[in-house]
Write a structure and sequence with these properties.
The complex is a heterodimer of chains A (327) and B (333).
Chain A lengths: L5 E12 L2 E13 L4 E5 L6 H8 L7 E6 L2 E2 L6 H7 L3 E4 L13 H11 L4 H14 L16 H13 L5 E5 L7 H18 L2 E5 L3 H7 L2 E6 L2 E7 H6 L4 H8 L52 E2 L6 E3 L3 H10 L1
Helix pairs in contact in A: 3-4, 3-5, 4-5, 5-6
Chain B lengths: L3 E10 L2 E11 L4 E5 L6 H8 L8 E3 L2 E4 L2 E2 L5 H7 L4 E4 L3 H4 L6 H12 L4 H14 L5 H5 L8 H13 L5 E5 L7 H18 L2 E6 L2 H7 L2 E6 L2 E7 H6 L4 H8 L47 E2 L5 E2 L9 H12 L5
Parallel strand pairs in B: 3-9, 3-10, 7-8, 8-9
Antiparallel strand pairs in B: 1-2, 1-4, 1-5, 5-6, 10-11, 11-13, 12-13
Helix pairs in contact in B: 4-5, 4-7, 7-8
């Protein structure tokens, strides 16, 4: 088996929050192979964006290792690290307006990553013009400024800017959640086309389960800084094992008027989502989990493999399996 | 008689014709979803219904009745008696909609003191009772807290409490769950559903999320470029969508059960500073015809089912073909 493109070992990111140590990302192990699309889902505050930003080198880590293409990445990046990274990892952000320089024309913004790689002049302009066309914008858009474009058009520029250096991994952090449905589909299709065309690996961070289901080959579910379930997308969505994944999928509204879910008994969320602390013991989902027992509050669960090729971090997987087989 | 009857509403703000032709009908106790993309005029419609548009906005309507009153003739003072009392609103972002300097309890109690003339004590008691009904733990203590001490889902519940405290006849909810996580969204929606069932309040639910619509609405109006382009029962609009925009919208949304290729709608909505003289959707429509240069009126395409599309004109040959297809697919006979 070839070495994974991205190999993450025991990655942690802790923030000081008053007297507490907030564990935004807490001991994550994750591999991304070349050319695959890994979906990352979870509620706000689960640490999915922090994880993405750490892989892109935008967020320093507290502990752990990140290997990209076999290279051990430094804890915090210097200028030349970023330059080296430019052909490895790129990122597409949620807010396409904030991620473009308002004082630069679109064409200049597109060329900027190339400049940092030492490509200047006509060569850079030609490449930018090609990408402008590739993401479906007219050449005249190159003369404009970010505020003159619509949200969908700006996100196309954000995508072109990420792909222009031909990176091996593109991290998409909620790239479509700020867009309207009709435009969302355009952007999702564009991302999928480009990903296939260039065989780019993609980490797709989203809270919209249907979008992840559509794009990702593998899906990881995060809850309060930890991966609670990971596996092939179809397996995670069709046979979820972790109680949190089950809850998340049950809360998804699919636009099918016949299958209304609200009147069915969804377990009430009696305890509000809280911040994960570094000092937490046991399973972080236990306070909200209907299956929790004493052991869950004491020992942290670990990812366990199964026949359906998903791994889930839960102490009660066996009991869940038995309950399920009984119907 | 219906609770709200609005025909041909037009609102322009400066050069922007934000609402060009919106008609809405709401029965008492009904939940109607108002669906559309950003910039299509849904929120302007809501603000107009609540009398919250600035004076600079030009508002006109052919007919506008609410609870037996002619709203085109209404005075500023009468508006004050309606707002928060008979018509109330849940805003999208509770953090900005609530006053950061007042306790949650005081804000929920305020409409009771103003409209129902309750004393401070009485109003507070009611506010606490309502918070308890909305499943907020320790309501008495929570009522003394300020908005920043609440989580997003709890703030949205406080917003709901504030809106329903006077038991309004019409509740307008403007994207109340868009900012929330899915598990919290499911909870807030079931709360709204419960409140609606217990008090018989009619609801106008503004959203762009078709999943939410399917979950909560009885009937649906679809807006595009400042106009209602389709309206009908939930079943009609979701299973027998008549307007090409509604059809395209449904094909553009990824589904969890059935991940099929997405068909994006090419192009962007028109600029409402210079709205097209013909059909607003024509430029993006795959079924465009020569007549689409002319603006279509709302046409009947079934019982209580209207679409603003020339395809449904009685002289259009395709109408019969589509009607046939619908009956073959097991539609209403």
């Amino acid at each position: 088996m070839t070495a994974p493109l991205v190999d993450i070992r025991q990655l942690r990111c802790h923030f000081k929050s008053g007297a507490n140590l907030l564990a935004a990302v807490d001991g994550i192990n994750l591999q991304i192979t070349a050319g695959e699309v890994l979906g990352l889902v979870g509620e706000s505050g689960s640490g999915k964006s922090t994880l993405g930003r750490m892989i892109a080198g935008l967020q320093s880590r507290s502990a752990g290792k990140i290997y990209i293409d076999g290279k051990d990445m430094p804890h915090s990046y210097r200028r030349h690290d970023y330059r080296e990274m430019a052909t490895q990892v790129q990122m597409v952000f949620q807010d396409s307006y904030a991620s473009l320089n308002p004082r630069m024309t679109i064409l200049a913004s597109l060329q900027e990553p190339l400049w940092s790689l030492g490509i200047h002049g006509q060569a850079a302009r030609d490449k930018a013009a090609y990408w402008l066309d590739r993401v479906g914008l007219p050449q005249s858009a190159g003369e404009r400024y970010p505020h003159e474009l619509s949200g969908g058009q700006r996100q196309r520029i954000g995508i072109a800017r990420a792909f222009i250096t031909e990176p091996k991994l593109v991290i998409c952090d909620e790239p479509v959640s700020a867009l309207d449905v009709s435009v969302q589909a355009q952007i999702i299709n564009l991302l999928q086309e480009l990903q296939r065309e260039h065989n780019t690996a993609m980490l797709f961070i989203a809270h919209d389960l249907a979008v992840v289901r559509f794009l990702a080959t593998r899906t990881a579910v995060m809850y309060l800084g930890e991966i609670v379930e990971i596996g092939p997308t179809a397996a995670v969505f069709e046979a979820p094992r972790h109680p949190y994944t089950v809850r998340l999928l049950a809360a998804h509204l699919d636009g099918n008027p016949k299958g209304r879910i609200l009147n069915k008994s969804l377990p009430a969320q009696t305890i509000a989502n809280r911040a994960p602390l570094a000092t937490d013991r046991g399973c972080r989902f236990a306070p909200r989990c209907h299956m929790a027992e004493l052991a869950c509050c004491d020992t942290p669960p670990w990812l366990q493999p199964s026949r359906v090729r998903t791994e889930a971090a839960c102490h009660r997987l066996v009991d869940i399996e038995i309950l399920r087989s009984r119907g | 008689m219906s609770l709200l009857k609005l025909t041909s509403l037009q609102v322009s703000i400066g050069p922007v014709k934000a609402v060009r032709d919106v008609s809405l009908n709401l029965e008492a106790g009904e939940c109607r979803a108002l669906v559309g993309e950003s910039g299509c005029g849904k929120s302007v419609t809501a603000m107009t219904l609540l009398g919250l548009m600035p004076n600079a906005a030009k508002i006109s309507a052919e007919e506008w009745w609410f609870a037996g009153r002619d709203m085109t003739q209404i005075k500023e003072r009468e508006w004050r008696q309606l707002q928060g009392n008979q018509i109330a609103m849940i805003f999208q972002n509770p953090m900005t909609a609530l006053d950061p300097t007042q306790t949650i309890g005081a804000q929920i109690a305020e409409p009771l003191r103003i409209h129902k003339g309750l004393s401070r004590r009485e109003a507070k008691m009611r506010a606490i009772a309502l918070l308890e009904r909305l499943a907020i733990a320790n309501p008495a203590q929570r009522a003394e807290q300020y908005p920043f001490e609440f989580s997003g889902g709890m703030l949205q519940r406080a917003m709901i409490a504030m809106a329903v405290v006077c038991e309004p006849e019409l509740l307008i909810a403007d994207e109340p769950t868009t900012a929330l996580d899915v598990t919290v969204q499911a909870e807030v929606l079931s709360l709204l559903q419960e409140m609606r069932e217990s008090s018989g309040t009619a609801m106008l639910f503004i959203t762009h999320d078709l999943g939410v619509v399917a979950e909560i609405a009885d009937s649906v109006s679809v807006m595009y470029a400042g106009q209602t382009v389709e309206s009908g029962s939930l079943h009609d609009v979701f299973s027998r969508e008549a307007h090409p925009y509604t059809q395209a919208l449904k094909r553009a949304v990824p589904s969890l059960e059935n991940p099929k290729p997405l068909e994006a709608i090419a192009g962007t909505p028109p600029d409402l500073r210079q709205p097209p003289s013909g059909c607003g959707f024509a430029a993006r429509c795959s079924k465009r015809m020569a007549i689409c240069e002319e603006s279509p009126p709302l046409m009947s395409c079934g019982e209580d089912h209207l679409a603003r599309c020339w395809l449904w004109h009685k002289d259009h040959p395709e109408r019969w073909r589509e009607a046939e297809a619908v009956s073959l697919l097991g539609g209403k006979s």
